[in-house]
């Protein structure tokens, strides 16, 4: 029982890291209709900003909060200067641009802060508490709680606020939204800014578990994209649930199925994800698109 609890909690904590990036991907998709492949590099860049604030002597919580604010304006700047030039055209071209941004921002991070491994301080204590015979780290608990809080705020944003409704309208049809009087350009900037701020939170959560490097989130981005698609690209709740599913499934498979181990454990949630998407192509919590002809 203790081993099971340990594997589940560790899986939820790992899945929460994927979920933080997946939420940012969902946010950009709901605001612009695009999938942002540069989200990982943007999150790493924001984490380096937080690291720079920490080096000035600021408490880690204050440094992360300042990085979140700076990242909002950074994301808005990226949308205004780069992405907007390709909006209104082919989505395929815009997606390729985000891939280019992924490479560019990784290179800029390495140029500014070097490719050396850096230690990033943890926002939460490193102590553990006993739960059903297992030692559950407070950092894992803090990561899970943070992601749940962010998910709840995003859900409230999209369902209960005028800004969220406007973002959804712009994602559905920018031309109709503009004709309705919505400030489409400003809303797109806000969407990208919020996604960049979420990336800063995700980077700050994962950096203490790994060494801070420009490629820190490259692998996590693959899991985050999988979680966003599995949960439904229009559902913050779905992204988090799917990320938890991936984290827990791979942990349990690696812990209990001997021939899988650590090397093949990722194949288990990916295979299950394939089966689920065959039945529900729109994802677990996504909405089926209805087109009138």
Automatic annotation (TrEMBL):
InterPro entries the record matches: ABC_transp_permease, BCAA_transport_permease
A Pfam family recorded for this sequence: BPD_transp_2
TM helices/strands, residue ranges: 7-28, 34-51, 58-78, 93-115, 136-158, 187-207, 219-246, 266-285
Protein origin, superkingdom: Bacteria
Protein localization: Cell membrane
Family: Belongs to the binding-protein-dependent transport system permease family. LivHM subfamily.
The protein's name: Branched-chain amino acid ABC transporter permease
Organism annotation: Georgenia alba
């Amino acid at each position: 029982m203790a081993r099971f609890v340990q594997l589940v909690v560790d899986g939820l904590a790992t899945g929460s890291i994927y979920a933080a990036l997946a939420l940012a991907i969902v946010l950009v998709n709901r605001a612009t209709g695009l999938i942002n492949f540069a989200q990982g590099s943007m999150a790493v860049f924001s984490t380096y900003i937080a690291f720079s604030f920490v080096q000035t002597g600021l408490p880690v919580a204050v440094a992360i909060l300042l990085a979140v604010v700076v990242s909002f304006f950074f994301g808005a700047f990226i949308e205004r200067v780069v992405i907007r030039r390709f909006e209104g055209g082919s989505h395929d071209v815009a997606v390729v641009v985000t891939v280019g941004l992924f490479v560019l921002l990784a290179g800029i991070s390495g140029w500014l802060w070097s490719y050396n491994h850096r230690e990033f301080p943890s926002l939460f204590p490193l102590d553990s508490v006993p739960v059903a015979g297992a030692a559950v780290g407070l950092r894992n608990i803090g990561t899970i709680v943070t992601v749940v809080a962010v998910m709840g705020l995003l859900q409230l944003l999209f369902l209960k606020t005028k800004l969220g409704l406007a973002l959804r309208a712009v994602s559905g049809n920018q031309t109709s939204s503009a004709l309705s009087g919505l400030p489409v350009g400003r809303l797109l900037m806000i969407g990208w800014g919020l996604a960049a701020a979420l990336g800063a939170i995700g980077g700050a959560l994962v950096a203490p578990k790994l060494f801070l490097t420009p490629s820190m989130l490259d692998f996590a981005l693959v899991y985050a994209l999988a979680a966003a698609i599995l949960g439904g690209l229009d559902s913050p709740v779905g992204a988090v649930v799917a990320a938890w599913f991936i984290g827990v499934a791979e942990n349990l498979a690696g812990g209990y199925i001997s021939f899988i181990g650590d090397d093949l454990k990722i194949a288990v949630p990916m295979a299950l994800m394939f089966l689920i998407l065959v039945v529900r192509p729109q994802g677990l919590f996504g909405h089926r698109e209805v087109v009138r002809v």
